[in-house]
User: Which sequence fits this backbone?
């Protein structure tokens, strides 16, 4: 009988695995088959369901398959999204180092695409790691950058992501006005889009703000709304956060029994999951409560607190994350410097183009004046020489940066190079100057003489008619 039960269990397990793999394959193929970039990103965002966000293994499997297919198709959009998924999956598993590495890759590729939605998504996912580690300043900078890029993008759901996370981080640093503003905006966005994926998380943040503002009843209302929203869903992480927030609220208000009840629920909801690293907050509360009257409970929750904290804050992990963060910050600085350099080069190139256009129109004007009887011979000669000087100076302007590079800014070598150029240009200058003076002046005289003859002929004809 037991053998039959085991066989049935294994059969059901295999069927479930095949069904899940089939679903992943269909999801990934649908993403890669979409040629419209905006619709492709819509499909990627739709993957982040409550079930997806609560299953690190599913996130990683989807990310790996999307990465494999996007690399075969040379699809940068899919590749960046795949790295974001992998980073998200490893972060959910508690492996922040691998998560950080994948998120950095996602951002680097997103920057190359120039797609604002993709970049906003990658930055938002990266910021989670710093938020989890309570490195709040770094997290806030990334969420604000994500918000800025999302507002320049097209996907409405992505615009809501940094809002709800800014609400949570500003709550952590006790900037309650900012937390309330962003959480309310996130709530409005969630209701408008009928997207309940993070509604419980948003309500938890609103409860935390009202608790710290001293609005006891309103805070409890928000917390219970969050718990109701999350109960029965697969988002046990968010439910644990709601329980932990409510426990802290009761602790601050001296309601110790209620605090113990919800702190224990926050821990128990994460039992037999990969999210035990999130137990540090409720475990710390219980450890503080039992510290003076229950040694066994104090030891129990001290162990839970230590285990949760070690996954985030052990020395080796801290050093590696600091180095990876430093490398990414350095890359961002270099990227910013390259953008400034490219912008300066673009401005210089535009100025060169404007000068060239000005020279072109100058010679058109010169050609028109040289055929006119209005301009004098001296003026035409002056304009011709001025035009040649403009060309020669423009050539010098173009070759000057090249000469600086070749001569390594040596004044002596620069002088010799400029003298060599002048030696080549001077004979040409004299030759062209002589040509302009002779030909243009002769043409000018011929036109003046022709005009004079016509005037005389006209006067003679007028005189004959008069006689």
Assistant:
């Amino acid at each position: 009988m037991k053998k039959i039960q085991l066989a049935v269990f294994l059969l059901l397990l295999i069927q479930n695995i095949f069904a899940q793999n089939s679903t992943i394959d269909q999801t990934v193929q649908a993403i890669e088959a979409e040629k419209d970039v905006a619709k492709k990103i819509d499909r990627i965002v739709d993957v982040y369901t409550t079930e997806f966000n609560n299953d690190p293994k599913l996130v990683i499997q989807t990310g790996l398959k999307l990465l494999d297919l996007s690399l075969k198709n040379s699809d940068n959009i899919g590749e960046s999204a795949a790295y974001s998924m992998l980073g998200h999956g490893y972060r959910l598993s508690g492996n922040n180092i691998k998560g950080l590495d994948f998120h950095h890759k996602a951002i680097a590729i997103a920057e190359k695409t120039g797609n604002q939605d993709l970049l906003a998504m990658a930055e938002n996912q990266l910021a989670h790691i710093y938020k989890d580690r309570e490195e709040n300043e770094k997290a806030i900078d990334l969420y604000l950058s994500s918000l800025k890029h999302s507002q320049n993008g097209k996907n409405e759901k992505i615009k809501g992501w940094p809002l709800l996370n800014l609400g949570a981080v500003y709550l952590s640093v006790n900037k309650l006005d900012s937390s309330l503003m962003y959480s309310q905006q996130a709530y409005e966005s969630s209701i408008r889009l009928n997207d309940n994926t993070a509604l419980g998380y948003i309500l938890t943040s609103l409860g935390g703000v009202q608790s710290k503002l001293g609005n006891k009843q309103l805070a409890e209302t928000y917390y219970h709304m969050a718990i109701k929203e999350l109960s029965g869903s697969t988002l046990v992480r968010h439910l644990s956060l709601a329980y932990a927030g409510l426990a802290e609220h009761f602790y601050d208000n001296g309601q110790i029994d209620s605090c113990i009840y919800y702190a224990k629920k926050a821990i128990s909801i994460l039992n037999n999951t990969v999210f035990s690293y999130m137990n540090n907050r409720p475990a710390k509360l219980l450890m503080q409560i039992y510290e003076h009257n229950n040694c066994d409970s104090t030891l129990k929750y001290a162990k839970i607190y230590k285990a949760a904290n070690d996954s985030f804050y052990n020395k080796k992990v801290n050093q590696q994350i600091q180095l990876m963060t430093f490398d990414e910050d350095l890359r961002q600085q270099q990227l910013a410097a390259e953008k400034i350099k490219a912008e300066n080069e673009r401005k210089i190139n535009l100025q060169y183009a404007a000068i060239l256009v000005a020279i072109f129109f100058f010679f058109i004007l010169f050609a028109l004046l040289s055929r006119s009887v209005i301009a004098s011979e001296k003026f035409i000669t002056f304009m011709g020489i001025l035009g040649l000087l403009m060309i020669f100076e423009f050539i010098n302007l173009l070759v000057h940066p090249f000469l600086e590079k070749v001569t390594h800014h040596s004044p002596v070598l620069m002088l010799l190079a400029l003298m060599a150029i002048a030696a080549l240009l001077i004979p040409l200058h004299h030759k062209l100057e002589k040509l302009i003076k002779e030909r243009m002046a002769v043409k000018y005289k011929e036109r003046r003489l022709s005009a004079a003859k016509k005037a005389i002929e006209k006067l003679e004809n007028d005189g004959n008619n008069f006689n």
